[in-house]
Amino acid sequence: MSPKKSFHTSNPETDTAIDRTIPDFPAAQLSDEDRYFRAHKPPKYLDELSAEVSEFVEFHLKNSKKNIVLVTSGGTTVPLENNTVRFIDNFSAGTRGATSAEYFLENGYAVIFLHREFSLLPYSRHYSHTTNCFLDYMTEEDNKVQINRDFADEMLVVLRKYNAAKESNSLLLIPFTTVNQYLYTLKTISEILHRVDTRALFYLAAAVSDFFLPQSKMPQHKIQSQESGGKLIIDLEPVPKFLSRLVDNWAPAAMIVSFKLETDNTILIKKAKNALTRYQHQLVIGNLLQTRKKEVVFVTTDEPDQWIKLTDEEYKNKEEIEKIIIPAVIERHHKWIKQRNENKQK
Ligand code: 9Z3
After folding, report:
1. Cα 134 to ligand 1 centre (Å)
2. For residue range 38-61, what is the model confidence (pLDDT) as tens digits?
3. Which CATH architecture has domain 29-122+170-345?
């Protein structure tokens, strides 16, 4: 038995119980992000989606021991009506995300690909959304459909990689369309990836809208032009800065990489640094709309800015800059895992 304690915790301290000089304790403030999730309904399919992601993550935790990356890709929409006829869209074909996902898979990662539905997908991107129709990749020989010889060799390479990803259950495709679906899905997946601890990596390449129309202000039906005197004035709210929640609460042990897109090269680095200071995450990859396929810049708090560039020759030969970006990100993720594990042991 332990010695009798000389203090009790169940009795209030009477000398301060009626002390009116103690300042008021401010009521807990809801952050913009919490307010957002309280005021907006989750998509109906979220539980189903969550079960699918959990199953994928458990599979890899048990069987493959692969690191898991969440790649976000494509643009979000902002619906203007509940029964949506009109919406505001965000630029992005999903090239960065889909191409990056392929290089992550090649480098041994399991990939959750959170993408704008019908934007580019890993592997199929080589044959969809091109100026060719998919039928152009085929020919007819002896009353049978065959792959056009001009494309067959390249297609075999892509097919093998695609099958390898499928057979090892390493690629999970999860769609979104609206910014609300994106935010709820990101939160749900992040909370599941919490289980993966430091081996989870976030690679946020989706072009997420900065402004949205709250559900409370959204008309149910198609906006009528006669009712507003022919003009349409839209009053949008800022999308909450969910990155801070991701870093602090949803998946605090994961490494987080975000992209910063600008069109004015004089502000790119400054804006990337602002994002790092604001969210305290690990890496911002800056890119300009005009040159995004040729050059990007890695911005961190502890190293000089590092430009990754394709030469004109490489660019002409259709080399993909993601082939250089992904190994450089992975190298940083490995360091992150090592450092965090060493810190845990201290
Ligand atoms: C990017 O910067 C991507 O690299 C691109 C890729 C969208 C330019 P594509 O799909 O284009 O290959 O055609 N993504 C992040 C864009 C974004 O919205 N970033 C936010 C910001 O800049 C932070 S989450 O404020």
Report:
1. 28
2. 999 999 999 999 999 999 999 999
3. 3-Layer(aba) Sandwich (3.40)
Pocket residue to mutate for ligand 1, from 96, 202, 212, 325, most atoms within 8 A of Cβ:
96
ipTM above 0.85, yes or no: yes
Residue among 241, 250, 261, 257 at smallest CA distance from 203: 257
Rounded CA-CA distance 127/147 in Å is 12
Mean pLDDT, range 259-276, rounded to an integer: 97
Domain residue limits, the chain: 29-122+170-345
Q: Relative to the CA of 287, which ligand 1 atom is closest? A: 2
Q: CB-based contacts of 81: which residues, under 8 Å, 6+ apart?
A: 218, 219, 220, 221, 222, 223
Query: What is the mean predicted confidence (pLDDT) over 128-156?
Result: 91
Phi, psi (rounded to 5 degrees) for 105: -60, -45
To test ligand 1's pocket by mutation, which of 260, 271, 276 has the most ligand atoms within 8 angstroms of CB?
260
The rounded mean pLDDT for the chain is 92
pLDDT digits (tens, 9 = 90+) for 165-188: 999 999 999 999 999 999 999 999
pLDDT at 231: 86
Give 72 Cα–ligand 1 centroid separation in angstroms. Answer: 10
C-beta 98 within 6 A of ligand 1: no
Q: Are 100 and 206 in contact (CB under 8 A)?
A: no
Q: What is the pLDDT of residue 17?
A: 59
Report CA(206)–ligand 1 centroid distance (Å). Answer: 5
